[in-house]
Each structure stands twice: as structure tokens, then as C-alpha cells.
Write a structure and sequence with these properties.
The chain is an alpha+beta fold. It has seven helices and five strands, in the order H-H-H-H-H-E-E-H-H-E-E-E.
Length: about 180
């Protein structure tokens, strides 16, 4: 399994810490797996097999990005592990009070409200990181007072989406303003 994992990473240009974030383990553990010094637990082995079997389909992610960018609702997509912004709708940009373009490829975590941080901390209890679909998570948030990227008091819906490169995305939709 170690050689397969190393080959998978190299073919996709993924670093060990990225695979570690996808699987919820440390980078050191990924290194030990690749070196054959450690064997994954049965649950991690199944998740690793699923990751290794994933197909890279950049066209699928490009289509998802276009759907989000053209959505009428305020919605954006982030990497679930890193909170890096992957796409945003014009309605979301209007809500933020800024263009998303300067933030694409950067983490939005610094703009999170205390309610978003608290909801993030409760995700493991809701089964968010399990293999089964946890469904939609509703988050009530206050505003953040940021001029760079404004978060308004609202109800957000978080949904998990598998991306073509093996990452998990989080689709964030505003469903009501407070």
C-alpha cells in the first residue's frame, strides 16, 4: 500500500500533508505508511483504498466551479480540510462586499465568526468526517465585522462534496439572513 500511495501522490502532485489532511492523520503517519514502517488501521485502510481508487476528472471540478460561480444564491465552495476558497457566486461576493478573486486559493478561516468556529469544532460529533454522508449541517452565525470579507448574521447550510482530486469540498450556502 505504501508504494501505491507514493505513486498516487506523485502522479497527482499531492504532498503528504495534503493526504494526511484528507484522511485526518498526521503527515508523519503518511510517511511511515509509504516507507512500509506502519500499517493503516482497517478503517483507515478502507478510506485509503477509496482515495487511491478515485479518478482525476478536472472537467467535473471545472463544471462544479462554473455552477457555483453562476448560481443565483449566495454560495461558495471551500476545501473542507484547509478552508481554501475554490469558487464563489456573484451573490456571495455581494454579501461579502468584495470580489472573491483575490481570495481564491487562500484560506478563509481568518474571517470565521465565533459561531462558525464552534460549529467546526462540533463536526466530528455530527459524523462529518465519517464515510457516510452526514447530510446538511445548519449553522447560525453572527457577523464578523470585517471590511475585507463581510459575514452577515445568517443561517448557513454546509454540505460535503467529493472533488475529483480526492479532496472533500464544503459547499456553503446562505439560506436565511437574521
Amino acid at each position: 500500500m505504501g508504494r501505491q500511495l507514493r505513486r498516487f501522490r506523485r502522479l497527482r502532485g499531492i504532498k503528504q500533508d495534503h493526504v494526511a489532511a484528507l484522511l485526518g492523520v498526521s503527515q508523519g503517519l503518511i510517511s511511515r505508511w509509504e516507507a512500509g514502517l506502519h500499517t493503516p488501521s482497517p478503517a483507515l485502510y478502507r478510506r485509503l483504498e477509496k482515495l487511491l481508487a478515485s479518478k482525476v476528472d478536472p472537467a467535473a471540478d471545472a463544471a462544479l466551479r462554473r455552477l457555483i460561480e453562476n448560481a443565483v444564491a449566495p454560495v461558495h465552495l471551500i476545501c473542507d480540510a484547509s478552508h481554501v476558497l475554490l469558487a464563489a457566486s456573484a451573490a456571495r461576493e455581494a454579501e461579502w462586499g468584495s470580489r472573491a478573486t483575490p481570495f481564491l486559493g487562500t484560506s478563509l478561516w481568518r474571517f470565521a465568526t465565533s459561531e462558525i468556529v464552534a460549529s467546526e469544532e462540533r463536526l466530528p460529533d455530527r459524523g462529518w468526517f465519517e464515510e457516510t454522508d452526514p447530510g446538511m449541517v445548519l449553522v447560525e452565525t453572527g457577523g464578523n465585522g470585517s471590511r475585507d470579507m463581510r459575514i452577515l448574521p445568517s443561517t448557513l447550510a454546509w454540505e460535503r462534496i467529493a472533488l475529483a482530486d480526492g479532496r472533500i469540498g464544503r459547499l456553503v450556502t446562505t439560506i436565511a439572513f437574521a
